[in-house]
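Request: Show me your protein:
***
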Amino acid sequence: ELQLVESGGGLVQPGGSLRLSCASSGFTFSSYWMYWVRQAPGKGLEWVSSIDHGGTNTYYANSVKGRFTISKDNAKNTLYLQLNGLKTEDTAMYYCARDSRGNTRGQGTQVTVSS
Protein backbone atom coordinates (compact mmCIF):
# COMPACT_ATOMS: atom_id res chain seq x y z
CA GLU A 1 0.00 0.00 0.00
CA LEU A 2 1.35 3.40 -1.03
CA GLN A 3 1.99 5.76 1.88
CA LEU A 4 3.26 9.34 1.99
CA VAL A 5 3.69 10.86 5.45
CA GLU A 6 4.64 14.52 5.76
CA SER A 7 6.14 16.19 8.82
CA GLY A 8 8.01 19.33 9.84
CA GLY A 9 5.34 21.99 9.56
CA GLY A 10 4.63 24.57 12.24
CA LEU A 11 4.17 28.20 13.15
CA VAL A 12 6.98 30.52 12.07
CA GLN A 13 7.49 34.26 11.84
CA PRO A 14 7.92 36.00 8.48
CA GLY A 15 11.47 35.50 7.26
CA GLY A 16 11.82 32.24 9.13
CA SER A 17 12.65 28.75 7.91
CA LEU A 18 11.25 25.24 8.08
CA ARG A 19 12.25 21.88 6.67
CA LEU A 20 9.48 19.58 5.57
CA SER A 21 9.98 15.83 5.19
CA CYS A 22 7.93 13.17 3.46
CA ALA A 23 8.52 9.51 4.25
CA SER A 24 7.34 7.19 1.51
CA SER A 25 6.61 3.48 1.29
CA GLY A 26 4.72 1.02 -0.88
CA PHE A 27 6.34 1.93 -4.19
CA THR A 28 9.80 2.22 -5.75
CA PHE A 29 10.58 5.77 -4.64
CA SER A 30 13.78 6.00 -6.68
CA SER A 31 11.86 5.45 -9.92
CA TYR A 32 9.47 8.36 -9.54
CA TRP A 33 9.50 12.10 -9.95
CA MET A 34 8.13 13.62 -6.74
CA TYR A 35 6.27 16.83 -6.04
CA TRP A 36 5.26 19.26 -3.35
CA VAL A 37 1.88 20.94 -3.64
CA ARG A 38 0.09 23.23 -1.20
CA GLN A 39 -3.40 24.44 -0.43
CA ALA A 40 -4.00 27.79 1.21
CA PRO A 41 -7.23 28.41 3.13
CA GLY A 42 -10.14 28.77 0.72
CA LYS A 43 -8.02 28.04 -2.37
CA GLY A 44 -7.27 25.08 -4.61
CA LEU A 45 -4.18 22.94 -4.76
CA GLU A 46 -1.11 24.76 -6.07
CA TRP A 47 1.99 23.07 -7.47
CA VAL A 48 5.11 24.23 -5.59
CA SER A 49 8.05 22.13 -6.75
CA SER A 50 9.15 19.01 -8.61
CA ILE A 51 12.23 16.81 -8.60
CA ASP A 52 13.19 14.10 -11.05
CA HIS A 53 13.61 10.46 -10.04
CA GLY A 54 17.37 10.76 -9.50
CA GLY A 55 17.19 14.08 -7.68
CA THR A 56 19.24 15.87 -10.32
CA ASN A 57 16.73 18.27 -11.85
CA THR A 58 14.45 20.51 -9.82
CA TYR A 59 11.67 22.90 -10.73
CA TYR A 60 9.86 25.60 -8.77
CA ALA A 61 6.80 27.80 -8.99
CA ASN A 62 7.77 31.43 -9.54
CA SER A 63 6.27 32.33 -6.17
CA VAL A 64 8.83 30.21 -4.28
CA LYS A 65 11.85 30.22 -6.60
CA GLY A 66 15.00 31.25 -4.77
CA ARG A 67 13.45 30.61 -1.34
CA PHE A 68 12.49 26.92 -1.35
CA THR A 69 14.70 23.92 -2.11
CA ILE A 70 13.44 20.45 -2.95
CA SER A 71 15.58 17.35 -2.51
CA LYS A 72 15.18 13.60 -2.22
CA ASP A 73 17.16 10.84 -0.54
CA ASN A 74 16.46 7.65 -2.48
CA ALA A 75 18.33 5.54 0.08
CA LYS A 76 15.91 6.73 2.78
CA ASN A 77 12.81 6.93 0.54
CA THR A 78 12.35 10.47 1.77
CA LEU A 79 11.47 13.74 0.06
CA TYR A 80 12.36 17.12 1.55
CA LEU A 81 11.41 20.76 1.11
CA GLN A 82 13.55 23.45 2.70
CA LEU A 83 11.55 26.64 3.15
CA ASN A 84 13.53 29.84 3.70
CA GLY A 85 12.46 33.47 3.71
CA LEU A 86 8.90 32.52 4.54
CA LYS A 87 6.12 34.99 3.81
CA THR A 88 2.58 35.18 5.17
CA GLU A 89 1.30 34.13 1.75
CA ASP A 90 3.17 30.81 2.15
CA THR A 91 0.66 29.81 4.84
CA ALA A 92 -0.93 26.57 3.62
CA MET A 93 -1.21 22.84 4.07
CA TYR A 94 1.78 21.30 2.31
CA TYR A 95 1.53 17.89 0.68
CA CYS A 96 4.07 15.64 -0.95
CA ALA A 97 2.68 13.92 -4.00
CA ARG A 98 3.55 11.40 -6.65
CA ASP A 99 1.93 13.49 -9.38
CA SER A 100 1.96 17.20 -10.11
CA ARG A 101 -1.76 17.65 -9.55
CA GLY A 102 -1.58 16.15 -6.08
CA ASN A 103 -4.04 13.34 -6.80
CA THR A 104 -1.79 10.88 -4.95
CA ARG A 105 -0.65 12.73 -1.84
CA GLY A 106 -0.16 12.37 1.87
CA GLN A 107 -2.21 13.82 4.72
CA GLY A 108 -0.24 17.06 4.69
CA THR A 109 1.63 19.21 7.20
CA GLN A 110 0.46 22.70 8.14
CA VAL A 111 2.76 25.69 7.65
CA THR A 112 1.61 28.94 9.23
CA VAL A 113 3.60 32.12 8.74
CA SER A 114 2.53 34.87 11.11
CA SER A 115 3.99 37.49 13.39
